[in-house]
Design a protein that fits this description.
566 residues, 2 domains, five-stranded mixed sheet, 24 helices, 60% helix
Length: 566
């Protein structure tokens, strides 16, 4: 966070007039409330999971932790419990899935909006004047990378605030050496580890940074490492419990992918290209500003005359960025989708940090330095983009394109049906050039321009409709009785029902071998054009069939006559 930059060159940055504490507190509270309102408005139509099985995994974990029934998510990726802990109380208030989901979205907004006051603190730490720090941090907090995932029950909704808070605490420890800061940074890093595997990388880098800082501040650094180890153990205990309860048949093992990618030439090509694609997306998704910040961080690390703490923090940010990009790419299987080659979700937790550094460069550096950093961002775009195109080739056109993976590039190219890497790169370069021009008119102009671009991108991606469609229970009968899904049904059929069937744990059965006596509803797959009766020819007498469909997969729910009716 601490970067050594040339003296300020912009009038707004030269203004060092302090803001009265009460007025500053009021502005921060109002700004946070405004961020909450924007997030709630953008998520106003959301009533249930869309990113399956991810959201279903987090919701099932929270329900289990609240004392409710779990689920059988065996064979799927393990969704850690740190994020689910935050909204576990929602299940103490209500059992209705739509109401629980609404409470999750509200929580996401409350926590996600914290990036504004945290961003202000970071901007001030980077040397920006109070007025400029307030305006640009509020605008930067609206980046789609920071706000988009808040409209879903996904850990990405809270990771940006956790990552920024961790860096601020670690930076303060590097400067002042206080034990409380070391312990606080370790606690936040350990929590991030409990939330997602990206947090494991963050925690490892954090411990490495403390080990380096121990050369100057031995005892507080060792205490911070002890807190980190304890937090890691607590996170492990929480996740071990969830793994045993929700994944009795085992989780989707990505370890073999990592070993293959690390030990073969082909695997390294995949991992490095995927990492390059994530860096490309980081720059594009921040309208080029994150690229300016990335270049400035690398320059601060390379500057030998920079202060010790400055170089440690620059190295920490750079290593955690590259580590997440490389490790996540190495672990992911080839799912034959465009997102395998260029993806922004994993680095979204650091997008705001790099953007704030980029804005600080524009605020404090001279025109020549700012232009050089912008050209450096363009070079990063060109190199990483060319790498992705050379490695992926025609697969960028033939593989599955999921618009959810590309909220920013959809906006930059005004197309939600295809991926256009060169066009998105040029658009991002055009925006960073516009910000360079806007800085000549003061920081109000920069903040307005940045906020306008962010809001336009969010509106384009999330739509303008205000209609909320609350899902109804897809199964026949009341919310009672045992429910089972045939082992031959598509996994989406099973997982999509996990959130809606809140009163019981959904079982897995083979209808050809019969069903347990306590099961009221059995869901079986239905082939296209197949007669309803043919889906379960041996069903017990008196059972009634009800048709349904989930994510394009047809099914039939058979209901026992002995079970309660609506």
């Amino acid at each position: 966070m601490m970067l050594t930059l040339p003296p300020p060159a912009v009038a707004a940055a030269r203004d060092r007039r302090p803001v009265p504490p009460r007025r500053l507190a009021l502005l921060l509270v109002l700004g946070w409330a405004g961020q909450v309102c924007v997030r709630l408005w953008m998520a106003r139509t959301r009533t249930g999971p869309a990113a399956v099985p991810d959201e279903s995994g987090y919701l099932a974990a929270a329900r289990l932790l609240a004392g409710g029934p779990g689920a059988d998510l065996s064979g799927h990726t393990f969704y850690q419990g740190g994020y689910s802990l935050l909204f576990t109380p929602a299940y103490w208030v209500t059992h209705d899935p739509a109401t629980v989901y609404l409470l999750v979205i509200v929580l996401n907004a409350l926590v996600g909006a914290a990036v504004f006051p945290l961003g202000y603190a970071a901007a001030r730490r980077l040397g920006m004047a109070p007025g400029a720090a307030l305006t640009v941090s509020w605008a930067a907090a609206l980046l789609p990378a920071v706000t988009f995932f808040g409209a879903f029950a996904l850990a990405d909704a809270v990771l940006p605030a956790a990552s920024l808070g961790w860096l601020l605490l670690l930076d303060r420890f590097a400067r002042d050496g206080r034990v409380a800061d070391a312990a606080g940074a370790s606690a936040v890093a350990a929590y991030a580890c409990a939330v997602h595997t990206r947090g494991t990388i963050l925690l490892a880098v954090h411990c490495a940074a403390l080990a380096v800082l121990a050369f100057r501040r031995l005892r507080p650094a060792l205490f911070g490492i002890a807190v980190a180890v304890s937090g890691y153990a607590a996170a492990g205990a929480l996740n071990d419990r969830l793994r045993a309860e929700l994944y009795p048949g085992g989780v989707r093992d990505l370890g073999d992918n990592v070993v293959t990618r690390l030990t073969t030439v082909e695997g390294q090509a995949w991992a490095l290209s995927g990492a390059a694609g994530q860096l490309w997306y980081l720059v594009v998704s921040t309208w080029g500003l994150g690229g300016v910040g990335l270049v400035a961080v690398a320059a601060a690390l390379a500057r030998r005359r920079a202060a010790f703490g400055t170089r440690v923090m620059a190295g920490t940010l750079l290593v955690v960025t590259l580590g997440i990009a490389y490790a996540s790419s190495a672990a992911l299987p080839d799912e034959h989708r465009v997102g395998n080659f260029a993806y922004g979700r994993y680095l979204s937790c650091l997008a705001l940090v790099h953007t704030l550094v980029g804005l600080a460069v524009l605020a404090r550096a001279g025109t020549r330095t700012a232009v050089r950093c912008a050209l450096g961002a363009g070079a990063v775009l060109a190199v990483t983009g060319a790498w992705v195109m050379a490695y992926a080739g025609k697969r960028l056109r033939t593989h599955l394109y999921i618009a959810f993976d590309f909220p920013e590039t959809n906006f930059l190219t005004l197309d939600q049906k295809g991926f256009h890497l060169p066009e998105a790169s040029l658009a991002a370069l055009g925006l960073v050039a516009a910000f360079l021009v806007a800085r000549r008119f003061g920081w109000t102009a920069v903040a307005v321009a940045l906020a306008a671009v962010n809001l336009a991108a969010l509106t384009f991606t999330m739509g303008t409709s205000s209609r909320r469609v609350v899902p109804v229970l897809p199964l026949p009968g009341p919310a009672a009785g045992g429910v089972a899904v045939d082992v031959n049904a598509h996994w989406r059929t099973h997982v999509s029902l996990v959130d809606q069937v809140w009163w019981t744990r959904i079982g897995r059965v083979d209808v050809r071998a019969g069903v347990p006596a306590d099961v009221c509803t059995v869901v079986v797959p239905r082939a296209a054009g197949a007669a309803v009766e043919s889906t379960w020819p041996g069903h017990p007498a008196g059972w009634r069939a009800h048709t349904g469909e989930t994510a394009g997969h047809a099914w039939v729910a058979w209901r026992a006559p002995s079970c309660p009716a609506r």
